[in-house]
Amino acid sequence: MLIVVSDIIQVAVFSSEMLLLNSVKRFILVLSPQRKDHGSLLDLHCWDMLKSMQQMLRDLFYLRAILAIYWNSIQLDGGKRLILLTILKLSVLSLIAPAILCSELGATEKLRVEGNTLYYSTSDAKEAIDQEISWDDVESFEAILKKQSHITLLQLNSRGGEIEAAMHLADVIIDYELDTHIDGECSSACVLIFLGGETRSLARGSWIGFHKSSWASNHIKDYYTERKEDEGWADEYEFAEWLYADTQKSILRDLEYLIERGVHPAFAIKTLGADNDDMWYPRRKEMVASGIITED
Q1: pTM score of the predicted model
Q2: pLDDT per residue as tens digits for the range 70-112
Q3: What share of the chain is helix, strand, coil (3-state, %, to 5)?
């Protein structure tokens, strides 16, 4: 059977959409629960949905591969072929949309600007999944600072979230030379953002909380399963070797950051002893003396 030009185009469409499915798989891996602080909230229903979506995408990938191979032998007229293509394309979109919504919904609810102050309050998000520091906040945060150069102060209220996102936000704050202020609570990963401030202050009646970071065993298992091929881990022992080295690297990075930001080394070491199942709230005088707060 001769392959007509339209069929070549359809096969090309199949190939490009297969690449899209692989990209979505990578996107899901980025969203997977990684090492997060104990104060962060991850909506497990959303995560389960993403896992199910990944399996459905994999099945759809194989289906489209088969269709691409046997496309010219399918006994359908042009109109019916177009309908079939449209249905499959809509299937892809319907699977991708929840992931995008799950990752981005609520980022702008946490951020607002009044005068020269940028307010970042994760508890202002309507959905529980969004009531944490996340990578989705980073994009909105940077966009606001780029457009509104008059901002000089960041006011914080958050119980924590993704450590890597918090470290990135801290670098942004340092680059823009913002002052930081807490009105409410700033705990766990939020402290990393707070320490990025040129001057740092704490409203009376507000709290700063510290604890060790943690990584739940089920999330470690998922991380290993999803990434072992890309990382080249032959077995769980090679993964454990990487995890041991990475943990030491993370602890050293956190200590260096605290000391770089003017925190007394003895206090920085003390934060590592805080139980990850609880939160340590030091008294104001101790935090002033240790350099956490620079303006009383």
Answers
A1: 0.65
A2: 555 555 555 555 555 666 555 555 555 554 444 444 557 899 9
A3: 60, 10, 25
Q: Is residue 226 part of a domain?
A: no
Place of tokens 């953002």: 193
Domain residues for 22? 5-104
Q: Is residue 228 part of a domain?
A: no
Contact 180, 156 (CB under 8 A): yes
Q: Which of 88, 104, 120 is the last residue of a domain?
A: 104
What is d(CA 257, CA 174) in angstroms, rounded to the nearest whole number? 12
| Phi, psi of 42, rounded to the nearest 5 degrees | -115, 125
The CB density around residue 244, as the number of other CB atoms within 10 Å, is: 10
- Given 56, 85, 104, the domain boundary residue is 104
Residue type, 20: L
> Are the beta carbons of 111 and 137 closer than 8 angstroms?
yes
Query: Which tokens sit at 2?
Result: 């001769």
